[in-house]
TrEMBL record:
<feature type="transmembrane region" description="Helical">
    <location>
        <begin position="16"/>
        <end position="38"/>
    </location>
</feature>
<dbReference type="Pfam" id="PF03386">
    <property type="entry name" value="ENOD93"/>
</dbReference>
<keyword id="KW-0812">Transmembrane</keyword>
<keyword id="KW-1133">Transmembrane helix</keyword>
<keyword id="KW-0472">Membrane</keyword>
<feature type="transmembrane region" description="Helical">
    <location>
        <begin position="50"/>
        <end position="69"/>
    </location>
</feature>
<protein>
    <recommendedName>
        <fullName>Early nodulin-93-like</fullName>
    </recommendedName>
</protein>
<dbReference type="InterPro" id="IPR005050">
    <property type="entry name" value="Enod93"/>
</dbReference>
Length: 89
């Protein structure tokens, strides 16, 4: 029983990593386009150097990764918890 639970936990973690990576990639692209465009304008050029642009993009991508991965893992754990609870009753 323990090996089945471990395998299920690994699968849930893997699913969370895949979903988080997809979300991070999408968030990076969606954030990069307006950030780079604003960096080309005169006001943006004066206030957003390349480091600031990279920091904005990577922060959004990192946040998207952790939020989506956490929500995916918790949702699958909750779903499996309800299945195990129904099986016991």
């Amino acid at each position: 029983m323990a090996s089945f639970d471990q395998a299920m936990a690994k699968q849930q973690s893997r699913d969370g990593v895949v979903a988080g990576t997809k979300a991070a990639g999408l968030a990076a692209i969606v954030t990069a386009i307006p950030t780079v465009a604003i960096g080309r304008m005169p006001l943006g050029r004066a206030n957003l150097n390349y480091t600031a642009q990279a920091l904005i993009i990577s922060t959004v991508a990192g946040a998207a990764y952790f939020i989506v991965a956490d929500k995916t893992i918790l949702a699958s754990a909750r779903r499996n918890s309800f299945k195990n609870n129904e099986a016991r009753n």
